[in-house]
Specification:
heterodimer, A: about 120 residues, alpha/beta, Transcription Regulator spoIIAA, five-stranded mixed β-sheet, 5 strands, about 45% helix, globular, B: about 140 residues, Heat Shock Protein 90, 4 helices
Chain lengths: ~120, ~140
């Protein structure tokens, strides 16, 4: 009954994951499926757009921790954008800003990838 | 304070499946708001209770769907105590080290975050064994706003 949707779209060479609703232990496997699909397709540059995410628990945070290293080993990354304050606060409590890049806007995060590939 | 002499008692029993977490959150949110907590603090309490139930489903019942979880809410004056009882495997939270995000990253380790969050979000987190050899975790939050 948890209300969660995940959508994947390509913006140039970057894969954008839109997450919507409640990301918890029940819905986290849906997000894992999307990451597995990205690995299969060898798409390692990922931006997660949180603009429609209302809630996240540690099960959701664990998904990003499980995949980020593989993305980085392949010259990619997982970057986060458009977080609501209550969602960002949970990432912050756990120290995520030390290891992950957070952006106010999806475009900024995509731009960062594009700058990386130019240099 | 308007809520000074307020007393609230509520209880919810669920089976140990993750699809019940939404129900747990709804129950907890309503109870916390009824006690007079702000939306922001109610959100923290909701997440702590979600983490406690998630841990029980994962570790005490190992995802077996027939376990019982009883969530009891008691509010008196300014103290909200939420007791969560299960009949699954015993669990010693002291065996779980506090996570360090950098170490986690290196080791690709992804457990232990829930307990850490519960401690950060609540004023008190207590683990005990009740009569009948059941596990109990009690989460306490004081109404200060």
């Amino acid at each position: 009954m948890a209300d969660f949707n995940v959508n994947l779209r390509d913006v140039g060479s970057v894969s954008v994951i839109d997450v919507n609703g409640y990301l918890d232990a029940h819905t986290a496997p849906e997000l894992e499926n999307v990451f597995n699909k990205l690995l299969d397709q060898k798409n390692f540059k990922v931006v997660v757009n949180f603009s429609d995410l209302k809630y996240i628990s540690s099960a959701g945070l664990g998904v990003f921790m499980a995949y980020v290293e593989t993305m980085r080993e392949n010259n990619g990354d997982i970057k986060f954008s458009n977080l609501k304050d209550n969602v960002y606060n949970i990432f912050d409590l756990l120290g995520f800003p030390i290891l992950y890049e957070f952006y106010k806007d999806e475009q900024e995060a995509i731009q960062k990838f594009n700058e990386m590939s130019k240099s | 304070m308007i809520y000074q002499n307020k007393k609230i008692e509520k209880e919810l029993t669920i089976k140990s499946t993750t699809d019940n977490l939404a129900l747990v959150r709804e129950f907890t949110k309503k109870a916390a708001e009824e006690c007079g907590f702000s939306e922001e603090t109610a959100g923290k309490i909701v997440l702590a209770v979600d983490e406690a139930c998630t841990n029980i489903i994962k570790h005490a019942y190992k995802y077996s769907p027939d376990g019982k979880i009883i969530i009891s809410v008691k509010f008196d004056k300014d103290k909200l105590a939420i007791s969560i009882v299960d009949e699954g495997l015993h669990f010693n939270p002291n065996n779980v080290p506090e996570p360090n995000i950098v170490e986690y990253y290196k080791q690709k380790k992804i457990g232990g975050l829930g307990i850490f969050l519960m401690k950060k979000l609540m004023d008190e987190v207590k683990y005990s064994t009740t009569s009948g050899n059941k596990n109990e975790v009690t989460l306490v939050k004081y109404l200060t706003e």
